[in-house]
Every structure is written in structure tokens, then in C-alpha cells.
Amino acid sequence: MNNIDQLRQLMTLDAIMKTSDIKERFEKIAKMLFESFAIQKGETVYLFKEIEFYFYNKNHRDIITYPRSSKPLCWYNNRFGGIDLNFESNIECRESKKYDLDDTAYFGGILIRQLVCVNEVGSSKVLSGPLRCAELFKHNDTTSSFNEPQLVKYDNGMVGYIRRPRINILQPKQIVKEKVSGILNNYHVYPEKGKLCDDFSTFKGKLYRYIRCDKLMHDEDTNMVFISPWLKDKNGGGPEFYQRLANLFEQLGIEYKELKCTNDYWVRDYMPIQLGKDELLNYHYYPNYLVNMDDIETITDASKVLRGMGISCRSTNLIIDGGNMVPCGPYIVMTDKVFSENRIKKDDADFKALLESELGHPVVIIPWTPHDDDVYGHSDGFIKWCGDNRILMGNHGDCYPEEAASIRRILESYGFEVTEIRFKDKVDTPCYEFNWAYINFLQVGKNIIMPKFDIDEDAIALQYIQTAFPNCNIRQIEMKEIAKKGGALHCLSWNVYLPKHE
């Protein structure tokens, strides 16, 4: 079955389909439209950027949906001036031009809210809003189909998306009863009005708006690295390591600076994540491993650090660890510890949607089981993105094969190709005290600095990373004294892109 036939089949809903199945269809269709399709008009190609789903049947009474009868994959001019891509739809229309909203009716479509032109640059690249998107469907040449918008196959690679509530469902100060009464003017027969009002209230907040997310900022895009002056402290830091690291930065031409107003040297955990060149997100840093009386004073308020740097940043109140956010293509990979830290039931779908909405990117949740050698639950202790859809995974499988297999399965379900670092069958006596740390390396642009411990695994880990990053300059640094404290190079650093440092 080719892509278009598969999409047509997915768009063929019916009168009895259950709500759970409809939602599953929406997910699959959105993924297909974002990753595998585009709209072509003449020689110009437009990618789907933002779409909204609307569908009504007796089990999914989304009364907001405008009635129509149609085959799947037909364009539809809705009454608000926008363009829908129709589902299979069928509803009886009487001579009065009013419809029968009975149990046999099923109808709906996908509203196109935003398109991105791949042939142009600048402000003209984005068609924002249903009316601008609908302009594509006007003023066509009546003698030729060349200029008519066509749904075409288009390989976009790995594309993620987030879900948010549909917008403009109610006008300002408009109440639900008033809105539903206006909708019912289209129908001759319909279910009890009060129940439809309840249905409307339920569906108006549904996360049926899908927004495409392309690749976010990654280590390969950064040009500056910050470290904490606490690393130089003789009592709790590693001054010798600090000097080795500073020397290596200078040899590689990596610009680095010290952060001010910090209370700890694990700067990755409390500094904001960079989502785009001009977008930083700060979060509430309050990890459960630092809330006792002895450690709580080490919690750093990143907002104070940023103010001292003159860097603006948007914020979220969600509790997050910076080490638990690994950008991978359009996704951010996190362990499920983020649920417990926010006192939320594991795998809570509403919380995950909120998390994605705050981050502006889809999140992949991987399982984490606490062990004596890992109380942190940070995803940067498990994986590293290598470009495209490739992920390098640490040697967790040497000690916990079932846990590693579970992580791998989840990543692969999102389309990632996973390579696992393994030492168990390659060295006589694996040094588990340190060999977990190789995956926690630092990349700044095309330069990679990875740990070494003067053990057999050093050379093997180097080969794995060289294979995964063939175009990078890779250097090793001795850091036993730091790794004994529970972290490595990625944990110790905050690398970002700063325009003035290009």
C-alpha cells in the first residue's frame, strides 16, 4: 500500500468508530501529513505546519464540526473562509438545506492553519492563518490543473509535533449555550440540546490542534561553553581537573567563561535549555536529591545567574532537571522521573501534553529505575543524539539489560536508530564505577571532549564515539576525581549558541 492509499484509509472514518480509535487516527494522520506529504501548487511546495482536527459521530459528538458529505482527501471550503481536508463524511440533507444529526451521521475534516513554503525565504515563507492558507485555492487557471493545489508525497525526514487546544472555538464573551444554539440552526433533527452543550464544553478543550516541530538547538549548533567557578574549589571541586579542562578548551579554540552566582558545579542541571537561537527556557529546579537540609543550599536560582549575564529567558513553573533534557532531532528525551518530581502519576497524558506545550517540542519519555549508582534519573546519562535519526546509548545494558531493552524499544518506536555501547564482552573486567560516564561527553560545535579513566574501556568508548560522530574532532580528558561524584562533562557544562560569539 502506497502512502496516499494509506492516508486515504486512515481518513475513512465511520458512524460507529469509538473516541479512542478516532484519537489514534488523528495521531497517525498528523504524523503522516507532517512527515510524508505536502501541498504543491505549480512548482511551489508547502509543508504542513499547523492543522486542526474536527470530526462528529454518535460516539464522538464534536458538535463544533460543520456538516458535509464527502469522500476522503477532498478539499472543502468551510463557511469561515478556510480550507479543510475532508474525512469520509456522510449526513442526510433535506430540501430545507438543513441536516439530520442522527446516529447515522458522520463528518469532518482537517483545517489547515499554517503552511511553510520550501521554495521561498523570509516572511513570505510562512502562510499563517486559515484565510492565508485558503488563498492557495483561489484564482486557479480554469484551463489547466497545473496550478490547482495538489496533495503530494514529500519526504520531510523525522518531524515531531505538539498538541494544543483548538483556537477561536468561542468568540470573546460568547457562552456555550449561545454557540450551540447557533450551530443547531443547521439541523432539522438533533440530540437533546443540553447534552450537546455538555459535549461542546468537553470538546472545546481537546488537544486537537497539531503543530509541527522541526529540529531544535543541539550541541553541534553551540559556540560557547560556561562552567562554574565552584569547580576550582579545593574542598568540594576539582581544581586540577578544572585546569586540564581549561587548557583543552584553549587548545581546541572553544570559548569558555565562568558563571556567576552559582551554588554548585553541576551547571547543566539548573541552567535553562536552549530551544532556538533566541529562545531559552528556564524551569523550576528543585530536585528530590537536593531537598534535605545538607544539600538544599546548593540549589542555584538560574534566574539570578541569567540576570547577571544580561540574558532574557522565558520560564515555566514545572520542576525539571536540565540533565534530564536531551534534544534529539525535533524531540526532547526525558526519563519518567519528571512525573514524580512534579508529583504526577507516571505516564499522565495531560501532564505530558502540558510539558510539551511548555517546551514547544514533543517529548519522548524513557523509563528510569533508581539504583544505588543512579539516583538522578537524567536522560543525559543514557543517550546522546548523533544527527538525523541516530542515537548513541550508553552501556546501561551491561548491567541492566531488560531496562536498556525497554529504553531502546521506546526510542525505536519514534523512528530512532539506536547503537548501544557495550563493554561486557569486550574487556575481561569491566569497570562499572566509571564506564557509565562516557555517554556524558561534551560537544561544542564540531569538537567533542569525552572522559577517560586509564582503563580498557577508554579505547573502546572512543571508537564508538568516533563512529557515531565521524566529522568531529574528539579529545579525551582524565576525570576520575569528578566522575566519582556522580557526573561527567555534560553535567559540568552549559554550552549554548550566542550570536556575538560567531
Topology:
Elements: H1 3-10, H2 19-36, E1 37-41, E2 44-57, E3 60-61, E4 75-77, E5 83-86, E6 99-100, E7 107-117, E8 126-128, H3 130-134, E9 150-153, E10 160-164, H4 176-183, E11 187-189, H5 193-203, E12 209-213, E13 224-227, H6 239-252, E14 256-258, H7 267-270, E15 273-276, E16 279-284, H8 302-309, E17 314-319, E18 326-328, E19 331-335, H9 337-341, H10 349-359, E20 363-366, E21 383-387, E22 390-393, H11 396-399, H12 401-413, E23 417-420, E24 442-444, E25 447-452, H13 457-468, E26 473-478, H14 480-483, H15 489-492, E27 493-496
Parallel strand pairs: 6-11, 13-14, 16-17, 19-20, 22-23, 25-26
Antiparallel strand pairs: 1-2, 1-9, 2-3, 2-7, 2-12, 4-5, 5-7, 7-8, 10-12, 13-27, 15-16, 18-19, 21-22, 24-25
Helix pairs in contact: 4-5
Describe the structure.
The chain is an alpha+beta fold and 502 residues long. It folds into two domains: 3-213, 3-methyladenine DNA Glycosylase, Chain A, CATH 3.10.300; 219-501, L-arginine/glycine Amidinotransferase, Chain A (5-stranded Propeller). Strands 1, 2, 3, 4, 5, 7, 8, 9, 10 and 12 form a ten-stranded antiparallel β-sheet that branches. Strands 14-13-27 form a three-stranded mixed β-sheet. Helix 13 links the parallel strand 25 and strand 26 (473-478).
